[in-house]
Amino acid sequence: MNDGTDYRAILLTDTPLIDVRAPIEFQQGAMPGAINLPLMNDDERVAVGTCYKRQGPEAALALGHRLVSGEQRQQRLDAWREACQLRPEGYLCCARGGQRSHIVQQWLRESGIDYPLIQGGYKALRQAAIQITEERVQKPIILIGGCTGSGKTQLVQQQPNGVDLEGLAHHRGSSFGRTLTPQLSQASFENLLAVELLKKDAPRWVLEDEGRMIGANHLPECLREQMAQASIAVVEDPFELRLERLREEYFTRMHHDFTHAYGEERGWLEYSEYLHHGLAAIQRRLGLQRFKELTAKLDIALREQQTSGSTDKHMAWLVPLLNEYYDPMYRYQLEKKAAKIVFRGSWQEVAAWLNAQ
């Protein structure tokens, strides 16, 4: 068995991790597949940390044992025992493989469960993830470009060597890009990306032509630098086909997803708010007058959709938004990369070209 130091094997095989750090640490960065069953909650951790600074390690350890004792200790031990039984191939993990994971390991051992820990803890896994990304992004990259609604994400997802950055970020990249799944912290997003690159280990990568940011997550600098040098294949599909893709993605599917998640009434409110928020995010770029006009058309379209189920009236604000904002912006960005464009064609033609590479 892995002694808790073969970090790549642990990440590659989705090895379960019982992360005993405080919730705030876990939220700031965690590995895919980790569950958080903390030894100390956030308040307890702060108290122990303060004690450590003022009175030293022995006093801090004693305080920790006082804070996590009796019924509270038993409840946490029961949760760890259950997690260990459900994840017999897993490991304990704390910040640096230090006191917290050793204490939990000892308490488990006393209760009859021998469970290994990650040597070096989350910090060691994090360093391994950073190193994996830095290595893997050195391979050749082909970017899929094209205006909004060109089906770039689906094209990337089809490729055995495709890495869906937007899928990993839980965001589609535009002002309307948020999904119902909250975005991860920056470190957790980078860890997820590293594991994806590790698992695929392709001779070259196919990625979508992204900006620096995908929602709140930003691309690791090493990847961004490589993407800036990469070849680009541009999808050029008819405007009507792009509109149908956007209709399906943003109006039909998002309405369905919100309704499925929240129920009919609240789901409708959340869906309406999602579209309004997307438009409001680019208000400054549109100018106040144009923003008001498009918002009025959005409101009409929402009333029509709610009463009849038809999404046709959304075209009254979506078409000008593409023509006046998204398309000119993307074409301007693409012009600056003209020298790197190696192929242009329809979605099917780009797919065929990729398969021939």
From TrEMBL:
<keyword id="KW-0808">Transferase</keyword>
<dbReference type="InterPro" id="IPR001763">
    <property type="entry name" value="Rhodanese-like_dom"/>
</dbReference>
<dbReference type="GO" id="GO:0016765">
    <property type="term" value="F:transferase activity, transferring alkyl or aryl (other than methyl) groups"/>
</dbReference>
<comment type="similarity">
    <text>Belongs to the SelU family.</text>
</comment>
<keyword id="KW-0711">Selenium</keyword>
<dbReference type="InterPro" id="IPR017582">
    <property type="entry name" value="SelU"/>
</dbReference>
<dbReference type="InterPro" id="IPR036873">
    <property type="entry name" value="Rhodanese-like_dom_sf"/>
</dbReference>
<feature type="active site" description="S-selanylcysteine intermediate">
    <location>
        <position position="94"/>
    </location>
</feature>
<comment type="subunit">
    <text>Monomer.</text>
</comment>
<dbReference type="GO" id="GO:0043828">
    <property type="term" value="F:tRNA 2-selenouridine synthase activity"/>
</dbReference>
<protein>
    <recommendedName>
        <fullName>tRNA 2-selenouridine synthase</fullName>
        <ecNumber>2.9.1.3</ecNumber>
    </recommendedName>
</protein>
<dbReference type="GO" id="GO:0002098">
    <property type="term" value="P:tRNA wobble uridine modification"/>
</dbReference>
<dbReference type="InterPro" id="IPR058840">
    <property type="entry name" value="AAA_SelU"/>
</dbReference>
<feature type="domain" description="Rhodanese">
    <location>
        <begin position="11"/>
        <end position="134"/>
    </location>
</feature>
<dbReference type="Pfam" id="PF26341">
    <property type="entry name" value="AAA_SelU"/>
</dbReference>
<comment type="function">
    <text>Involved in the post-transcriptional modification of the uridine at the wobble position (U34) of tRNA(Lys), tRNA(Glu) and tRNA(Gln). Catalyzes the conversion of 2-thiouridine (S2U-RNA) to 2-selenouridine (Se2U-RNA). Acts in a two-step process involving geranylation of 2-thiouridine (S2U) to S-geranyl-2-thiouridine (geS2U) and subsequent selenation of the latter derivative to 2-selenouridine (Se2U) in the tRNA chain.</text>
</comment>
